[in-house]
């Protein structure tokens, strides 16, 4: 068996793998898609000490770093179940079962998509999902935020301090965000809130130039000219494959303690698949390191 088996090869998993391998223990990492969400990212300007990089370039560095150690890297493998007998057993889609004394889950998350024309076409060309990441690129421009829940309203407040004007589009007749956030939102001079509207299409030639939406009550169609659309309708953790083997919260995020430990002894978790409130590359790497050190601590106490 492995000493530590990591499931997920994004920044959290890679960081966990390197921290584990540096303890001289038998380490494996299984990933459906090595690099994770970073592969889909164009410009990265908040990975501290690197002023600017691009997703695939950062992933190449992650791979180079991981290959520097004696780590079993199993790419293009999907985990479909986890259980604990004498060892922790991870079942792969191809039928293989990997055994390990400790495991770290770092299967990340994915943004819920709108599924309207233009969304895929203009991804990274005006369609964005992360205000912390891409907000500064829209300085002095008009943008829309789709979604009036907590994350949408937080994004709108954040963006209002950077961009020229923000329009919030909410499908339901009321915003779902906390009262205190709504109050702050409505106090801002450069924000417009549109409720009971359905986003229909993101338009443009090479990049986003506007959005078309309908007023659901009046059944009228409108068009707004703007440079960016932030989609904020939810982040879905990739944790369904775990069923109820480890505790998850109402969003499906894995609940971990200070050491990255889950509710199942010997199983740790890190990154966007956990209940960490902020989902960023640097944070995923930090929690990956925490989980690996937590797993090592567990091993030396349980051998
Ligand atoms: P992920 O990156 O999601 O990696 C999850 C890994 O698990 C992948 O390898 C995946 O294939 C694998 N996996 C999933 N399910 C299974 C399974 N069942 N079996 C095996 N493997 C599985 N953050 C920043 O800090 N700065 C930015 O500029 C930035 N820009 C972004 C732009 C975009 C378009 C997106 C989508 C995100 C951006 N983020 C940015 C967020 C950042 O990418 C994430 O916070 C980070 O990648 C999370 O790392 P992670 O390792 O937890 O998960």
From TrEMBL:
Domain (FAD/NAD(P)-binding): residue spans on this chain: 2-282
Keyword DNA-binding set for record: no
Keyword Transcription among UniProt keywords: no
Top-level division of the source organism's lineage: Bacteria
Binding-site positions, FAD: 3-18, 262-272
UniProt binding sites for NAD(+): 142-156
Disulphide-bonded residues: 130-133
GO CC, any one term: protein-containing complex
Record text on subunit structure and interactions: Homodimer.
Record's protein name: Alkyl hydroperoxide reductase subunit F
Lineage of source species: Bacteria, Bacillati, Bacillota, Clostridia, Halanaerobiales
Residue window of the full protein shown: 208 to 510 of 510
């Amino acid at each position: 068996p492995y000493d530590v088996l990591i499931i997920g090869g994004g920044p959290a998993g890679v960081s966990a793998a390197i921290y584990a391998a540096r303890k001289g223990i038998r380490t494996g990492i299984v990933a459906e898609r090595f690099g994770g969400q970073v592969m889909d990212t164009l410009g990265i300007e908040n990975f501290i000490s690197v002023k600017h990089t691009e997703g695939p370039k950062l992933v190449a560095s992650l791979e180079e770093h991981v290959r520097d150690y004696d780590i079993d890297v199993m790419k293009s493998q999907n985990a479909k179940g986890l259980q604990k007998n004498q060892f922790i057993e991870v079942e792969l889609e191809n039928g293989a079962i990997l055994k390990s004394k400790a495991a770290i889950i770092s299967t990340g998350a994915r943004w819920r998509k709108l599924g309207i024309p233009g969304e895929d076409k203009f991804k990274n060309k005006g369609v964005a999902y992360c205000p912390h990441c891409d907000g500064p690129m829209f300085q002095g421009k008009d943008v829309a935020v789709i979604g009036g829940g907590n994350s949408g309203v937080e994004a709108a407040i954040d963006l209002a301090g950077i961009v020229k004007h923000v329009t919030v589009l909410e499908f339901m007749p009321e915003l779902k965000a906390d009262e205190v956030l709504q109050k702050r939102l409505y106090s801002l001079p450069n924000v417009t809130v549109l409720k009971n509207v359905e986003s229909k299409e993101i338009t443009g030639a090479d990049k986003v130039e506007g959005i078309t939406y309908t007023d659901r009550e009046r059944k009228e169609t409108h068009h707004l000219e703007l440079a960016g659309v932030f989609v904020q309708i939810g982040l879905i953790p990739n944790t369904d494959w775990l069923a109820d083997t480890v505790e998850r919260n109402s969003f499906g995020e894995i609940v971990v303690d200070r050491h990255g430990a889950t509710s199942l002894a010997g199983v740790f978790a890190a990154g966007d698949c956990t209940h960490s409130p902020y989902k960023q590359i640097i944070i995923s790497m930090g929690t990956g390191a925490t989980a690996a050190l937590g797993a090592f601590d567990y091993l030396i106490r349980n051998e």
